[in-house]
Design goal:
The chain has 293 residues and is an alpha/beta fold. The protein folds into two domains: 89 residues, Winged helix-like DNA-binding domain superfamily/Winged helix DNA-binding domain (Arc Repressor Mutant, subunit A, Orthogonal Bundle); 202 residues, D-Maltodextrin-Binding Protein, domain 2, CATH 3.40.190.290. Strand 1 and strand 2 form a beta hairpin. Helix 1 packs across helix 3 and helix 5 crosses helix 10. The radius of gyration is 23 Å and the shape is globular. The relative contact order is 0.14.
Length: 293
């Protein structure tokens, strides 16, 4: 039995992505009993169980984890192969997998919505997938082929990838309205501020104000929304991009620690694999992303 682009594999991957049969039935458009039959048939074909299901909930077995990773790669490769053949006749098709860090929607100097609008205005049969992850995870996904293109402030650039500069993002340090510094004059040195009050930072973006090194942080968050929440508690100081913080500042929930030593910029890039032969869809998306706004 051939498994490449097999319905059983597609069902299995969808079930694993959805975390069980219940949500998968809506994604697949079939009943849970039909899904159960397909999973059972796949297990019969493979000769081992790929998942546990029942009152204890859904989980992949150890072999199922390996099978899931390989199945996803097989299906992704098959879709890319189909797209490459269709593009030979001038049709934009297949998957376009875009990776970004969080909160790029309001990024000054780059408009992701307008970029997608330009790209999608062409006749196409593209299936878009947008993944939000850290720059490190995006780098690994690009190298492995999990995504086609990534947009992030890549501080550590690798030779396997090609980078085009997009824009700069300004960062400043903020405190919440109940923080001790909220109503204090801005006359403390940067060293005093960083050494006297608890800091929080994003797991993938340490505090990088010029000359300030990497002060010890007392809390770690995964994204900017969580960072803003911790700053609002009044317990932590935290760095945010100005475009993300401006609404909170306007509402009086947080304010900037006004010290020029605690301001810095990060550079955003659009990255693709250096060695891959890019599909036309990838080339056009990069072209649209780099077009003057």
């Amino acid at each position: 039995m051939k498994l490449l682009r097999n319905t059983l594999l597609e069902t299995f991957v969808t079930v694993a992505d959805c975390g069980g049969f219940s949500d998968a039935q809506f994604a697949l458009g079939i009943t849970q009993s039909a899904i159960s039959i397909r999973i059972r048939d796949l297990e019969t074909t493979l000769g081992y169980r790929v998942c546990e299901r029942g009152r204890g909930g859904f989980r992949l077995t150890e072999r199922g984890e390996v099978a899931y990773a390989k199945a996803r790669e097989i299906l992704r490769t098959a879709r890319d192969f189909d797209a490459e053949l269709l593009e030979l006749r001038g049709v934009l098709a297949g998957d376009l997998r875009i990776g970004t860090v969080d909160a790029v929607g309001s990024l000054p100097g780059f408009n992701l919505a307008a970029t997608l609008q330009r790209f999608l205005s062409r006749p196409n049969d593209i299936r878009l997938e947008i993944v939000v992850a850290s720059p490190t995870d995006l780098t690994q996904s690009l190298i492995s082929g999990g995504i086609n293109v990534a947009i992030a402030p890549f501080q550590n650039r690798v030779p396997e990838l090609h980078y085009i500069e997009l824009c700069n993002e300004e960062h400043r340090l903020y405190c919440g309205q109940t923080h001790a510094l909220f109503d204090q004059p801005d006359d403390q040195s940067a060293e005093t501020i960083l050494g006297s009050y608890p800091l929080c930072h994003r797991a993938y973006d340490m505090f990088v104000a010029p000359g300030m090194g990497s002060p010890d942080s007392k809390a770690v968050v995964a994204n900017m929304e969580a960072m803003a929440v911790l700053i609002e508690t009044g317990h932590y100081l935290g760095a945010l991009p100005t475009h993300f913080a401006e609404d909170l500042v306007r509402k009086g929930k947080i304010r900037e620690i006004r010290n020029t030593a605690l301001r810095w910029n990060s550079t955003f890039f659009i990255a693709t694999r250096s060695t891959q032969v890019h599909r036309r869809a990838v080339e056009l998306f990069v072209q649209d992303a780099c077009a003057p706004t």
